[in-house]
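Dear support,

We are seeing what looks like truncated structure output for some complexes. This example has two components. We would appreciate it if you could run it in full and send us the complete token output so we can diff it against ours.
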Amino acid sequence: MPENRMRVKNKPLVTVTFNTWNCEFLLELINPQRAVGEIEAEIKARLFNYEQAFSRFLNYSELGRLNDGQTVDPSPLFVKVLSQAEILAAQINSDYFNPHVDLAAQGYDKSYDELGLKKIEYSVRTVVPEFPSGVHHQDNGLKLTANVKLDFGSFLKGLVSAQIADIYAPDCDGLVVNFGGDLTVRGKDLKTEAFAIGIFNPVLKIDHVIKLKNQSLCTSGSYKRTWTEGSAQKHHITNPVLGTSSNSDYVSISFWGVDGALCDALATAAFNATPEVWKQWQQTLPNLDYLAIHKSGEIITSNKS
Amino acid sequence: MEKEQLKLTAMSLLISLGFFASLNLAYLGWIKDADTQDYEAGYKKEVSPKESAKEAKPNARKSYAS
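Here is the complete output from our reference environment:
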């Protein structure tokens, strides 16, 4: 009898999935010791709070009001993420990483579901200042320089996936937090120490499998969230210097390591850098690896295993 | 007398067999106690059938652009 009850109660693998922030959120728990429904509700509440603070598409969010030119008294959450952006800006050259890039000016001014394949005929180009010079700390709150915008989309999912993983790691033997392809693993898989994770190759339609142990893995790709502006094909990764869609021969770039926010930011920034620069990042920043997929389908990677 | 004893022995054997068979059935999960049923009801309440069906979804172990 006890064994029977244990079998039901301690289901070895539980997965929760739902859609949020216009992508899929997946949580895998190995031997969870808490009610899964409770964990799911907590995560949804947390993600809701993030969306209320950082969505570009909610004009009442803190970020939306800042981008609208208003002065905003920032929440502790906003201050924390802004600080994280400043840390990343210090680690990555502003030619490659800049939260001031303005995707809306390129026509990506609403959620991708609403944007669809609509053609944008007109857009306004603005000079993108170096981050965080466009953010002004005033007595009554934060304000942006006129016509300067903020967008934390290049690292937020990596940051949040790692944060959620850290919160729930003590409640199970292991877990995978996969936030729209940006994921973090903690603890152990069912039978092994490491988690085997596939990086999707959009050209060859195969997965390149790597092993992760208490790390985050983030992927950016020019094969998703594309639209047409006039006669030009655009995608959601912007070159901060040119102010247009990044022009890279690589269609997917992944970074993995201990810092989820950094991996996410680098996966995006790498579209504006050369493979020599990726190698430099990998050698100078701690515990980092990358895998990039060329438009031919071939890969280059720093992974030795 | 011997017949009576034989009958009694046979009945005892049958009762014992029935008892152990019930235990075995319960152990295998064919008979569930109230706690287990309550737990299962709670589990179904916590994770919807749609979500349960997605267990071990391949995308959970996949990194991709979104």
